[in-house]
Sequence to fold (713 residues):
Amino acid sequence: MGLQGQAAIVGVAQYQPEKYSTAPRMFHLEQVADLARQALADAGLAASDIDGLCVNGPHFHEASSFVPAMVGEYLGAQLNFGEVVDLGGASAVAMAWRAAAAIELGLCQAVLCVIPQRMAPMGPDEDPMAMARAMRYGGHSTAFGAPEAEFDLPYGHMAQNTGYAMIAQRYKARYGYDEAAMAKIVVDQRSNACANPKAMFYGKPLSIDDVLASRMVADPLHVLEIVMPVAGGAAFIVTNAALAARSRHRPAWIKGFGEHIISKSPTYAPEMLDTPIGPAAKRAFAMAGITPADIDVAQIYDCYTITVLLTLEDAGFAKKGEGMAFVREHDLTYKGDFPLNTHGGQLGFGQAGSAGGMSQLIEAVEQIRGTCGERQVAHCDKAFVSGTGGVMSEQTALILMGE
Amino acid sequence: MSNKPQPAITDISRPYWDALKQHQIKLQQCNACALWVFFPRSHCPHCLSDALQWREVSGQGKLLTYTVARIPTLPDFADEAPQKLAVVELAEGVHLNTTLIGLDEDEICIGMAVKPVFDARGETTLLRFTGIDKTLSVIEGQTDEAAAETGQMQAKRQIHFKDFASLKALISDEFSPWSNRYSVTQDIINQFAALSGDDYWIHTDPERAKKHSPFGGTIAHGMLIQVLLSRLTIPLGWELTGFGNMANYGSNKLRFPSPVPAGSQIHGRARIKAVDEVKAGTQLTLEMCVHVVGQERPALINELIVLYMP
Fold:
């Protein structure tokens, strides 16, 4: 069951993270075309090779439905596979396996996976406050009949911070908590960001004391344990073996994946400490025929430190309840014995909305290629990538291998 | 009324909210699999049966988890700051989102037994929770705002307006304690709109503002907050004596860094920036800051100059 490992990621492109206020404004269609051109150039493939598409549906500026057809039309591509993915930060990994599955089924040969995340130019009749209104409830639906609108918002439960904080508090009550270990996740990743000139926090090292002295947002999460939203956008191209053989770089073969969706709010999960990455990672490792101990680099979705901790445990890198000891005992930098989020993670690189998760996938591809420069991990052949959407609503796992 | 989001009751959920109004808790139980259901649904999430029966339950449960939000999750919740957001597991096994009330931070512990508190202050009765040993069970009507924060009238130190040594010693980065609180109601905003002629919809049209304002409702005029400084008694701890007349000479700086949503409570504090001897007498520069209660970011900063003359 599962993939045969016959599809590979061969081209990547990513806008350097920037503040929304100063980033260029581009239509999403324009960003898709620009990122596709860059990713094709990186792969050494032609536009005419693209015959599949995975794109974000929600937050796509120029359309809320029929997005693949509109994007295909804009690119001048004839598509044998058109897919919209709506899994928040889990979308990048979700796109990769959907593309690989479509390729292995023989539906198509090269799939463009893309998420634009720069703001679009303001239209003449557009309400400048619409964005602010949309952000007011931080991704919570306010639609009539939406359970969260009726049962969460009136109590002030909204957005992500407090949801993740409550997961961390429950962890603390059950297993104990070492806030210095949590801060070390941020600090080690920041060291990685300082070896990545494209990272938002390049040149800004941090200490554990800095993290612990930063403002408490919602107990026990300090502001430096929370990602910074940035403008950006990213794309990657998945191809079959024939096209991969023509690509300019070492292909990153998609060997295993898993996806698991539990509930929109962790409140309604049977147990919020049993995160969806558990079943997702188990499936991914089994499919690839390897174990967590075989992994050379782990690119773990890091919207918050607690997400990293729980993923380390539930994906099988550390025993349940021993994640903090694992963090204390390992050097998580690119120089260390457990290289984690070698581009800085989103905590160090910046989080470009749903494209943020693509930064982790692209870093894994580049580590396998051996093109990471200063932060290159020696002999990198096997990478683990995870994605997380909502408040631990959904998680995805991916195993990439160089051979 | 505050701009807090209100539940939009559906035909499916109505029995739940109606029960809360009667200070009862009703949950759905599945006739097919006997499991309990929350939030209210059309179908059982365990077996998808549509045979769900409303039944009254005790509302007792335990604290599954919580956090203390040090930054309001929405400015409208500043009056609850710090918000004690919680998930409670009822005896029937269902989880619900709520807030804890009547508990100090050091009294809260995950796993503790909790009981319901029916909060009837808004349009809809909300279900909050407190410790099992607390007497609190119902909250009705608006809390007495005047009683909230006025007991700060101490004996004031008297300083002669020409005593520059003592006056200069008042210059400080430290703010005074907070003033009394004042509610900026829609009615006050409307009165100010009528008086000033500034009746822009973002101040005066709650319906339109609910749809189109980035703040989810109407907000007070910045100039109204400036005017309302007179309603705030800031406990400075000293007063000037010996002068014949005093005058408001104006402001060096006036800023409105954050909005005051209609229905919020404001309070203020001040610090002395400068004391100068001028031709006409003594000039005091006070930085007055007004905040929505619980908000760290001020709604008004006024660097006010007061002139004391012989």
In short: The interface with chain B takes residues 127, 129, 132-133, 136-137, 142, 144-145, 147, 149-159, 161-162, 165-170, 173, 215-219, 265, 267-268, 272 of chain A (CB under 8 Å). DSSP finds 14 helices and eleven strands in chain A. Residues 256 and 287 of chain A are 5 Å apart (CA to CA). Chain A has one domain: 7-120+226-401.
